[in-house]
Sequence to fold (619 residues):
Amino acid sequence: MRRSAFRRSRGDGPFRFASTGAGIVLLAIMAAIGVFLVVKAVPALQANTSRFLTELTWQPNATAPVFGIASLAFGTVLSSLLALLIATPVAVGVALFISHYAPRRLASVLGYVVDLLAAVPSVVYGLWGVTFLVPFMLGPSKFLNDYLGWIPLFGGDTVVGKSMLTASLVLAIMILPIIAAISREVFLQAPKMQEEAALALGATRWEMIRMSVLPFGRPGVISAAMLGLGRAMGETIAVALIFPATFKISFQILGPYGNSIAANIANGFGEATEVGRGALIASGLVLFLITLLVNMAARFVIARRKEYARAAA
Amino acid sequence: MTVHTGIHTRSAIKTRTGIQPISAARRAKDRLVQVLVYLAFALAVIPLLSLLWLVVKNGIGRFDMEFLTHSMRNIGARDAGGGAYHAIVGTLEQVLLASLIAVPIGLLTAVYLVEYGEGGRLSRTISFFVDVMTGVPSVVSGLFVLAFWILVLGMPFSGFAGALALSILMMPVVVRSAEEMLRLVPRELREASYALGVPKWRTIVKVVLPTAFTGIVTGVMLAVARVAGETAPLLLTVFITDSINVDPFDGPQMGLPLYVFDQAGRPTDTAINRAWTGALTLILIVMLLNLVARLITWWRSPARRR
Fold:
């Protein structure tokens, strides 16, 4: 149905032009984000007296600016991966609960409750995290350190509440709804015939899910997890309140270490000089590129199966 | 001998066959998974309940007229009183301006994708980048406006700059929801209009958009609810002030999320309490928007109309 109207009206041209133009504006904005971040990052990078990619410290406001992305990028990746590790199994469980376990009538209400988690603003998570979760996590963290301290991740001499683990936990709670929502949609689309066939052959509910629902939903769950990863990496305010804002690379997730690119931008912006702002913009460019890659990869996985496309919108 | 048939294995029919009953191990495994799945749901809901409870418990104390009608001018971290009037005004103006920018662009893009794109290369590219745009971190959109609007063009920190950053976050959400709603409009409606000799653009304006109207409104409200709670982009573009500034085009403003962040960073109990009340106000606004959106969907859902 390429041209349905027989006669071209005078209004058609402008209207078509406006709507095409709006689409192109969107593309232009995406391109402009990259271009202008580069434009403002370059002068700061030239003023940098160290190597941006490998330097650990962040002192762009000094007279001889020294700053690098290494420790921040490390913190971003580690906290997001931990969050993903915690959130994905729970989210898949939640999705299965709503798609295959909860009573039919309750399912949509319960799904809405999980969606509410996504509606809570990130600054409120930050406030909750810093006043409630930080002191609360001290006990479990000490326990992990005492009994599982031989695992390097839980090792270290000092154990604090404002740790990488607490920040990751908050991130996990924040990305759980998106992973759960997409997984749920995908699980609901699993072919009913296969499910019933499995049950008819005498499979238990779990065997049915393992044989027909999970294999069908696997690509959907993977891309959902990657979208969650992208969210976690870009999350700013909640972790800015929780991270102790150090510039070290340490795998001791219970210790007083941890920072991320986004949190550093929020915390460092207030006192940044011109070079300092440029440096923050440069770090933002790195964040933009990382999340862009993660998101594009996730979208490619989704796009391969058309039926998932709606669920991820 | 018992054979389990039917959905959910519970309805057992007793017949004599050679089939073995479900072994204890398989049954146990099934139970175990069921317990785990229920547990996962409980794990997801506990933080939500804890958070809502604390926000209400700690926020209700200062949720009074003074909070809603006063700013923080000349009020230090230790002083009692003070309010978020300046922040509420700022948030409303910023979100309204952001919607004024994002909704027309988003809606027109959706119209392009559904009515004009026809699966061509441009429409596939736009569609892909709309998806990618949903994943742009909010802090990056703030940095972009900072770099482009404030540093390159030399504009001041202002509510409008914040609205620009928020509109970037809103656009993809508006496009996706509007696109879905436009696709739901039956093709017969369009064809009937064409058959009457109505040109395509009038068909879109007079037939397609009105049919999808409530769905589009719902999508816009959800998008508004999403950006109303954003803090990071505002921090970089609106800056922070304790005074009332009703002009969104000039000078630093405040926003409710910024207010919560600002007060939470001050080390006294009175300030933390103000932060909780700010959080309560913010959550009430966001939940209200969500609820209205859901009600509109429910009220006009196809299932109800049928």
User: Anything to note?
Assistant: The beta strands of chain A are 58-59, 66-67.
